[in-house]
Amino acid sequence: MGKPSLPETEAGGPHVPVLLDAVLAALSPEPGRRIVDGTFGAGGYSRALLQAGAHVIGIDRDPSVAPHVAALEAEFPDTFTFVPGTFSELDSLAAGHGPVDGVVLDIGVSSMQLDEAGRGFSFMREGPLDMRMSQAGTSAADLVNELEPEALANLLYAFGEERKSRRIAQFIVAARAEKPITTTLDLARIIEKAIGRKPGDAHPATRSFQALRIAVNGEFEQLVEGLFAAERLLPEGGRLAVVSFHSLEDRIVKRYFDPGKGGPAQSRHLPQAETEPLRWHEVAKAVKAGAGELARNPRARSAVLRSATRTGLPARPVQMAGLGVPTIRGAA
């Protein structure tokens, strides 16, 4: 089998799905197997899975994926199905399309979304301060211009791990008193003014933009709901592969696969608490991009793949406790 061809992004270059070879190895997309791509995006994983002979059900809430969906529907009319929606509901969305053997989730913003300035995800491109994956609901501009200073600072700290969140919030509040903050570069400049920029360091707006994007799209809640939806959907022996892009997401996935990793240490002098039977086994070691992939695709530098195999035990109810899901201090 040759190397999978890659779909084009709106920016004209090929969309490069990260850790593609590792994802394919984790899912074993043999002919006849049915796999859910819960975060379709530009269709990079779906295309590779289809070329390997698998049937694919693609899911995405972003209306802008339509051209990529149309391309795969034309090329693979008998083996590709697309269902609009969020991956947090992938079990119900995939219902009626036959038994499923695997699920892949690529968490966070896609390169396609970053490349489209009008979506407002990138602090490197001028665009409206939006960040809504579904293109509906509360935008990043709404949060930046309307949240109280303490709430804004707490959001930046909890979801972006931004240690200078209070100073950034102070500068944002001062700037919006003069005029609303409406563009990505406006906000990026305010943040850079607030905390400075050292040569060689990541852009000072990186963590704040991450925090706003996560808040706008409810990404942590979506991730947890999606993980448990995959648990409900997959039968014994089904495989789940999850690619995440920062430590907060990866911590959630790691603890989800092995709940014992997230619990408090037990003293050997006390009665030992019973451990809950595992719904996942054959949990693979975390996979990161090698030097070759990083040279081809710098966006892979923070990607982590975790995968596991479903046991035959009944699915658990959705639970946030023990997964390390960040919470905003003072939130109701």
Automatic annotation (TrEMBL):
GO terms for biological process: rRNA base methylation. It comes from Devosia elaeis. Specifically methylates the N4 position of cytidine in position 1402 (C1402) of 16S rRNA. It holds the Pfam family Methyltransf_5. NCBIfam families: 16S rRNA (cytosine(1402)-N(4))-methyltransferase RsmH (TIGR00006). The gene is rsmH. The lineage of its organism: Bacteria, Pseudomonadati, Pseudomonadota, Alphaproteobacteria, Hyphomicrobiales. InterPro entries: RsmH, SAM-dep_MeTrfase_MraW_recog, SAM-dependent_MTases_sf. Its EC number is 2.1.1.199. S-adenosyl-L-methionine binds at G43, G44, Y45, D60, F87, D106, Q113. Its main location: cytoplasm. PANTHER family: 12S RRNA N4-METHYLCYTIDINE METHYLTRANSFERASE, S-ADENOSYL-METHYLTRANSFERASE MRAW. GO terms for cellular component: cytoplasm. It is found in: Cytoplasm. Keywords: Cytoplasm, Methyltransferase, rRNA processing, S-adenosyl-L-methionine, Transferase. GO terms for molecular function: rRNA (cytosine-N4-)-methyltransferase activity. It catalyses: cytidine(1402) in 16S rRNA + S-adenosyl-L-methionine = N(4)-methylcytidine(1402) in 16S rRNA + S-adenosyl-L-homocysteine + H(+). This is Ribosomal RNA small subunit methyltransferase H. Belongs to the methyltransferase superfamily. RsmH family.
